[in-house]
Amino acid sequence: MTLVAGGSFCVSARNGDILPGAAQGIYYADTRLLSHWELRVDDGPIEELQVVTGEPYHATFVGRAAPRPGQAESTLLVVRDRYVGGGLSEDVTIRNMSHEPAGCMVTLHIGSDVCDLFEVKTHRVHWVADVTTTAEERSLRMFSVSKGRGVRVVARADGTPVLPVVNPRLLVFRVVVPPRGEWGACLQANPIIDGVETAPWYSEKRLSPALARRAGQLFEWDKRLPKVTTTNTALAGILRQSHNDLGALRLFDPEHPELPPTVAAGAPWFMTLFGRDSLLTSWMALPLDPELAHGTLGRLAALQGTKIDPLTEEEPGKIMHELRYGARQDDTSAGGHAYYGSVDSSPLFVILLGELRRWGLHRAAVERLLPHADAALEWIERYGMRDGFLWYQRKTDQGLLNQGWKDSFDGINFADGTIARPPIALAEVQGYVYAACIARHYFAQEAGDTETERRYRERAAELRARFNERFWLPHRGYFAVGLDHDGRPIDALASNMGHCLWSGIVDRDKAGTVAEHLLSPRMFTGFGIRTLASDMGAYNPMSYHNGSVWPHDSALVAAGLMRYGFVEEAQRVATGLLDAARAFGDRLPELFCGFDRAEFDVPVPYPTSCSPQAWASATPIQLLRLLLRVDPWVPYGKVWLAPVLPKGFGELRISGFPLAGARVDLEAREDSGEVYVSGLPEEVRLITEPRPPASAGIRPCSP
């Protein structure tokens, strides 16, 4: 069970306990503050009955204690009302259902390893030697001097004293619960960061200002978003879950709460701003909430590289990979530390800025951020390009070995399974650079800057020609994953080339065979596109990047298929993903195993997959957009809208769709291709036919 509030989160068992030895814990500022939080009655465990979820940061765990002596059934109900935010607050209520008083010992077992989040994720957890536990009045304080971090657990109970602590990791209550009555206690776990204890967000059934603000933010988020009405109840549930999860994953700057939010990559491991993840999520979720794109671009621009630092891989103009707040011996920054080891964040920054321009949204912010896009493009040319392509190689042995979206150490490999050696030029990254150049070309065209327009048009055309020559494998009929350190094509059949359809870098005469490979049994499972084909040497359907299915990856492939006019193929991928979402209880996980649907008729979970996860949460929104074939071109006064809702999709109505600063309503139904639109600004002309596939290149339309 995962609860999320900004950068705080809690992972527990479904009875509310946090048990040592796994990834469970209470996390704040990329630190596991508590690794053990176990409630017991008379030294017996609490049996789970139900979890009642409310807001993303709130849940009520309903359970029962073991039967009383001489009884066959339990008569003690245990309710744990938990809030997460800047730590944890939990109201514990024990209700006695019998006719005689219940005398019992209630104990809370507490432990802290003050571990960095990545030590937990990579199974390198060790007990920090200098974590000391101090018993204070009604509280325990656990603190690591070397890391300057820890936690204080405070207990308050209904007229019940906390017994003297014998074991330094126990809070003990000696309780008499009256017949048909109840006993309660309030427990708080307050973070200590840099030696300073932070105030709880929630305390003794009263909302703190911080939690009240969070609740208000969720209320405002819900109120202003487009409303979707559909006869397809399964789709309605999936979209509602995406809506809720993206709301939970938004990040606000506590120093400047008036700024638009960014979006965290996912819980539990990535509750922080990422370059690639946050940019792609914002792009996919733009029809739902353009504020995410606005906030993410602004925050990443503020963190854009300004100097050369091999340890963080920072370079002038480079867009960062991730922002972290974990305790590090070499970090003295209270604002966290940025790591820049990503080859694709910089072109994706430009693509997202261009997308905001195409939708006619946040125009002043788009103009203000254009110099940052130029700096990102300059970084590509100055620091990343070699032989006409964008390459990556880590600067020290402390950095990520692979720096595209498949960033596991074995994620890039040849058809025979041999791992490719950096420097590497990835196929999809060349597509991102191509799309970034096109976006900048149109910025210049609209501004009347003919020299810049010409320069980026020529760059895009040259890159496209080189890519289709060097990356194409004519004897196999598909594109290489990339080029290795010797310039050899990395010849595995993988999903990366589907992103190349999305960006438009693929020549039309090659798109058909690419689509055939992507929808072949080797690649398409029935629920999504595998990251690696089933006949490749490194294939493993239970691996992270070598045969699993990533919903966002498959959604971008589907968008690419639709872009090139492969409607039926795009529909198959979209409906497969929506079927998977329904099987997962309406929430798509970060990834799932790549077994074929003919073998297992439900998708098989990947054990450590993040959920909720940002770009997986945005995937259903992207699928809806591509099935509606919404393609705005607001600067030129046009929007294409030509629905191809699959059979069984039902009727669909969207109210308050953001476009060109207005709120548009639209209606569509399956198989008809008809669409009804109202509220479109007068200066924008509706074109109720698909944008021609040939427009995937440099000049999609004339002004």
UniProtKB/TrEMBL annotation:
Residues 3-187 form the Putative glycogen debranching enzyme N-terminal domain. Gene3D superfamilies: 1.50.10.10. Residues 424-582 form the Mannosylglycerate hydrolase MGH1-like glycoside hydrolase domain. It holds the Pfam family MGH1-like_GH. This is Amylo-alpha-1,6-glucosidase.
